[in-house]
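Quick entry, no commentary yet.
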Amino acid sequence: MSTQFTELQMDALRELANIGSGTASTALAALLGRPVDISVPSAKALPFADAVDASGPAERVVTGVVIGVMGDLDATVLLMLGESDAATLCGLLGVDPADEMAASALGEIGNIVGASYINALAAMTGLDIEPEPPVSATDMLAAIVATVLAGRAEGDDIALVLDSNLVVEGEDCAISFLLVPSRGGVEQLLTRLGLGS
């Protein structure tokens, strides 16, 4: 079930994601010292419960990086990496995926990507928002979502699901990105873009 946003509104939300991706690519390239390209092939606005289902099987092991958003828009950003994608990024950073430093390294990647999206949202909408420090954990998808977003989202809140492809000098990686604004947050973003209903 998709929510009732027009194609024009979804295009605007996709464009926000693409601009955020460009900013994130530049920041990650500086960290890794090699070219990075992040594209956002799909953007969907779904009720939160459906957005979680769209992220994959509940028992799938993922590394989740959660970033709170404070200011004019109250929201939560959740970035999720599957095991092989997390291992790829750790390898690029020169960190053993089994090492305790891996969570910190992935948290920093998530922080760069998430903060880039949040800053792009702020720049395009004029909202005064900023990211909170990231929290990362590796567990089954269902456990991460339940723990991290408990109390932050209702089942019928709208989440923006951005599936991002991350390519670092030929190494493919996929990141699922959920932006879960407080109730009415997606409409607030669209209104700021001149596309309110």
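second:
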Amino acid sequence: MSNVTTRPLTTNELVALVTNSKPPWKHIFFLSAYLGLRISDLLTLPWTETPPEGPIYERKTKKYRSILWSELSTHHWKALWACGQPREYLFQFRDPSTYRKRLQAEAKRLGFSTPRVSYHSLRKTHAVIAYRRGGMLAAKASMNHSSLSTTERYISEALRLESTVFFDAIFTPSTKTVGEIRELNND
């Protein structure tokens, strides 16, 4: 998706993605959105039964990021750990494109608008959730950005694209709505 700004998933899309995907994907998608890490960093998480207690190293920024593990995130970590054979890394597929392709396939299956959806959408979803729950400073801290202007740009792009999706959804009639309109016209 070169030169295309990715969009975050809506809250409803994220919930649908996690609850309607089968293991190991439901756990992969949940952890990706929960952690808000880039795919390159997700692929370095160790295959351990419990989440790491220390901070996680982010390769792009060359910084460490502390993660607060909730009961639910720990559950998804352990469930992903239990999937498949013993291996070096928690995320079992080594090619990053595998994750993008699977997210695209699941999004299509669930009826999401897929243009501008990439694996980075899960990172942007994390940023938007952090912003909505705690404001710009919470999003900055959660994303481990050095500059507030970086976070502002990230959030404003994400919210602009998300609002486009919401607007389109309002004015794009679903099949059921079209059918109901046809029935009304025939009466």
